[in-house]
Structure formats: structure tokens, C-alpha cells
Design a protein that fits this description.
The complex is a heterodimer of chains A (about 300) and B (about 190). With about 300 residues, chain A is of the alpha+beta class. Chain A contains 5 helices and 19 strands. Helices cover about 15% and strands about 50% of the residues of chain A. Chain B has a single domain, classed as Immunoglobulin-like (Sandwich), CATH 2.60.40.10. The mean pLDDT of chain B is about 85. The chains are: A alpha+beta (about 300), B alpha+beta (about 190).
Chain lengths: ~300, ~190
């Protein structure tokens, strides 16, 4: 390789490296401690905690950055641009966790994240995680000049007040096992016996209104008086309450055979289940009044518990 | 009417709780960490010892409960009892447990083996309190489960072996080749 080639490769590597480097910025704000109805200085808090160090850290994924924190509670940190979580104050070897706040670092800017007030019953409780409340206010007119003085000439001034973050960044959702045990074979015993296949879709959301919603789809045959079979298909929607599924169902049954009427189906189901077995009651108002005791089995639940 | 399939089904259902077809394969699987759901998670390695008679079996499930104000009550656990476990990594073995915890303050809440539960007293739970701030791999050491009297709750006594060479080697074997590997401090890797 000639010296020209070497120079070219070096320049190329330098260009690629500089293109990869994340632009950074400075973000800061003020941490205010409140106990009861009064503000407590960080010095007073440290004294009340036996001189334990108070440290503020911001995290993005697995990357944790320690913010500089002065005696008046002003904090700042230089970090690659992005959104960071502020969720605890370290108190010696312990930490006081509070409702997570998201702080944005803007590239090439000095961003004010506001004044984060952490309210406790007693300042001695800091680090004990008894109870706390966090509020964020925009007092950047006072904060930014102070940050500018301590953080240095960090570019244009911006205001991006920290906002509440979600409690969990990632959590396990419904996995294939949960879906697999939703497939069930059901025997319904009443005036006539029925055999059905079911699929129960569990709540897909972890929080909110949809965290209790369940759906059920099923179909099969019901034996009439003369061993003739009528087929039905039903859809159900409802809620999970404690261990019980409560569902309204609708569908169709055809053809009508002796002892079993055909036509639209309307009714309700109450059921409970384990991984393998389920037990329930199915009441139909249409096409005719009927009640069934249902027993269901999850074949994948059984197989999965053996493997 | 041939009732053999029904009898076979009933036998399978009744035995699925106490023995599994995969037990011989599962028994030789090593302790191995599963991949985290997100970069914020930490891996906690803890061992539980308990007194037992001739037929004593190891605890199969441990529960950690978050006790800090924003996350209070949320439960995190690791278990040996889940569906199709033969296809997954083994995060519980011989009283050793690997559990994923997101940032927060946790207490060991309860221990289980099948339908048997060991409820911990207040002092034991407080003594087990851990603060997870920076994502990492943590070794809590061995905790010995003890009961002072018939009516008292169980207490936990730390055996003081957290970070020992033997445990570091166990932990390294469990995380090697996974994304947890980069979170193990180099000093502990050197102890393996």
C-alpha cells in the first residue's frame, strides 16, 4: 500500500468516525427538595441524613450519566443528544425513586429542563422510599443564566421542560404460550350435548381500559334428539374480573334439527380456567332458551406442562 | 366404548403438576440467563438455601416486590415452572436464581415450591432490600432460610459469599455469550 492510499484510508476513517459521533448538548435544571410545606436546602438534607452524598443521575437505556449538582440544587450534564430518564436521587448507597421524568438533550444547545421539586413528608425519609411526589415547574428565567455561568458557553438556549415518562420502558406482553393455551376444546352439557373448539384471546394491553378486555371465538356441533348435528359459530366479547371471564356472545346455528332450533344465537358466558382446564356456564336466550355446563381443555397447556 | 384415550388424558393431566416428560433433559441444562426485554434491566443472581429432610426439594419460584413509591406493589419473579420450559434457558437451578429487574427498590417477597409458600417476615423482607439504579449484573450471594419457631415467619441470613470466586465463575458461565456479558465488571471476569 502506498503512502497516498494510506492517507486516503486514514481520511476516510476520520470522516466515518466524525459522522458516527453523536452530537451532544448540555441539559440542566434545578432539584428542589421540599419536606412538609417548606423548602430544604441540599446541605440541610445531607446533614439530616448523616452526611450522605446526594447524586443525581440520568439514564438512557443502559447508559447512566452523573449530573453535576451544586449546593443550591442546580444540576447540569453534557450528554449525547437524546431523551434521558430522571427517576431517582442517589442517597449514599441507597436511592429515592420518584415518578420518572423524561429530559431531552438537544444537540448543540443549553436546554433548561425546569425545576424538579421532590416533596417528602420528612427530609429524613429521603432514601427510605416511604412516599414522595414530584412536580416540575418552568423557572428557566432564573435557571438558565445560572446554568450558563456554570456549564460554560454551550450554544443556544432552549427550554424543554421535563415531562412524565412511562413507568416501564419495556415489559413482557402476551407471548406465544399465552396465545397457545387460548386454543381449547370444550364439551357443553345441557339438555343436549355440544362439542366445540374455542380460541380465547386474553387482554392484550397491560394498562388502561383494554387491560381487561377478552374475546372468544368458537364453533362446533350440538347433537339433537335423533343424533342429528346442528353446527354453530359464536363470537364473544367481555371482561376479565378477578378469576372470571364474563362475556356476551352472539352467532348463528344451522340447520335446525329436532330438539335444537336453528337461527341467530345470543347469550352469555361465565367461565374460569387454569392453564389446562376450564369450567363455565353458557346461557342462551336465542335461538331458544338453554343452559349448558361447559368443561374445556387446553391441549397446548397440557403439552406445555409436560415439556 | 374405548375409554383408553380418556384414561390416558386424565393421567396426563393429574401428573403434569409433579413430573414432566422433559425432566431428564431439563435436569442437565445449565443455569443460563435469558436476554433482557430492554437495556434498562439488570440481572440479579441470588441463591437460596434451606434446611430440609430427606425429601426436601429446591424452591422453584422467587418473587421480588417493588417497594419504591412510583412502582410500589409491582412483582417480578423467576421460576422453574412454565410451559414448554425445555425449549428455554434455565434461570433457576439447584437453589440458584437469575432474575431480571428494572430500576427500582425491591424486597424479596416470597418463595415457592409448587403449592408450598414460604412467607417472609417484615425484618427478612427489609433485610433483603436492594436498590437497582445502574443497569448491571448483581450478585446478592446466598441467603439461608431459617425459622426461629413454629409460629414465627421465615428469616433470611446472608452467608456473605456475594462476589466470591466460585459464584463469579457460576455467574460468568450463566451470562457468557449473552448481552449481559458486557455488564459484568472485568474484575469479576478475571475471577472465573
Amino acid at each position: 500500500m502506498t503512502s497516498k492510499h494510506l492517507l486516503g484510508v486514514t481520511l476516510l476513517c476520520g470522516l466515518v468516525g466524525s459522522a458516527r459521533a453523536e452530537p451532544s448538548g448540555v441539559v440542566g435544571g434545578r432539584l428542589m427538595l421540599r419536606a412538609g410545606n417548606s423548602e430544604v436546602s441540599l446541605d440541610a438534607a445531607r446533614a439530616a441524613l448523616g452526611g450522605e452524598a446526594l447524586v443525581l443521575e440520568l439514564r438512557r437505556g443502559a447508559q447512566v450519566l452523573e449530573a453535576a449538582l451544586d449546593d443550591d440544587g442546580y444540576f447540569w450534564v453534557t450528554a449525547p443528544a437524546g431523551t434521558y430518564r430522571l427517576e431517582y436521587v442517589r442517597v449514599g448507597k441507597r436511592a429515592e425513586f420518584f415518578a420518572p421524568q423524561e429530559i431531552v438533550v438537544e444537540p448543540g444547545a443549553l436546554t433548561c429542563a425546569g425545576t424538579v421539586a421532590l416533596e417528602l413528608e420528612r427530609v429524613e425519609d429521603l432514601g427510605a422510599n416511604v412516599s414522595n411526589r414530584v412536580t416540575v415547574t418552568e423557572q428557566c428565567a432564573e435557571t438558565t443564566p445560572r446554568l450558563r455561568a456554570v456549564a460554560g458557553p454551550a450554544g443556544v438556549e432552549r427550554v424543554a421542560i421535563s415531562r412524565p415518562g412511562s413507568q416501564y420502558e419495556h415489559y413482557s406482553g402476551v407471548d406465544w404460550r399465552t396465545l397457545a393455551i387460548g386454543l381449547r376444546a370444550e364439551v357443553a352439557l345441557g339438555e343436549h350435548a355440544a362439542l366445540r373448539g374455542l380460541f380465547r384471546l386474553p387482554p392484550l394491553a397491560r394498562e388502561g381500559v383494554f387491560s381487561r378486555w377478552i374475546f372468544l371465538v368458537g364453533g362446533g356441533g350440538i347433537r339433537g334428539d335423533r343424533d342429528e348435528v346442528a353446527f354453530d359459530i359464536t363470537l364473544g366479547a367481555g371482561v376479565k374480573v378477578w378469576y372470571f371471564d364474563l362475556l356476551a356472545i352472539g352467532g348463528a346455528r344451522w340447520p335446525g334439527v329436532e330438539g335444537v332450533a336453528g337461527g341467530p344465537i345470543a347469550g352469555g358466558v361465565i367461565r374460569m380456567h387454569s392453564v389446562i382446564l376450564g369450567l363455565g356456564l353458557r346461557a342462551e336466550a336465542l335461538p331458544s332458551r338453554a343452559t349448558f355446563l361447559t368443561i374445556d381443555l387446553a391441549p397446548f397447556g397440557l403439552l406445555g406442562s409436560l415439556l | 366404548m374405548n375409554r383408553a384415550p380418556l384414561v390416558l388424558l386424565l393421567v396426563a393431566i393429574s401428573h403434569s403438576a409433579c413430573l414432566r416428560l422433559s425432566d431428564p433433559i431439563y435436569a442437565v441444562k445449565p443455569l443460563r440467563a435469558t436476554e433482557p426485554l430492554g437495556a434498562e434491566y439488570s440481572l440479579v443472581f441470588v441463591s437460596i438455601q434451606r434446611e430440609g429432610g430427606l425429601f426436601a426439594r429446591d424452591i422453584d419460584t422467587i418473587y421480588f416486590r417493588r417497594v419504591d413509591p412510583p412502582g410500589r406493589g409491582q412483582v417480578f419473579f423467576t421460576t422453574d415452572e412454565f410451559l414448554f420450559r425445555v425449549f428455554e434457558n434455565r434461570s433457576v437451578k439447584d437453589g440458584n436464581f437469575l432474575v431480571h429487574l428494572s430500576p427500582g427498590v425491591y424486597e424479596l417477597d416470597r418463595l415457592e415450591r409448587g403449592n408450598t409458600r414460604w412467607l417472609l417476615g417484615d425484618s427478612a423482607r427489609v433485610a433483603s432490600r436492594i436498590y437497582i439504579t445502574r443497569p448491571g449484573v448483581y450478585d446478592l450471594g446466598t441467603l439461608r432460610l431459617e425459622k426461629a419457631g413454629w409460629l414465627s415467619n421465615y428469616s433470611l441470613v446472608a452467608q456473605g459469599d456475594a462476589g466470591s470466586a466460585e459464584r463469579s465463575q457460576q455467574l460468568w458461565s450463566a451470562v457468557k455469550g449473552t448481552s449481559w456479558e458486557r455488564l459484568v465488571p472485568s474484575s469479576r471476569r478475571d475471577m472465573r
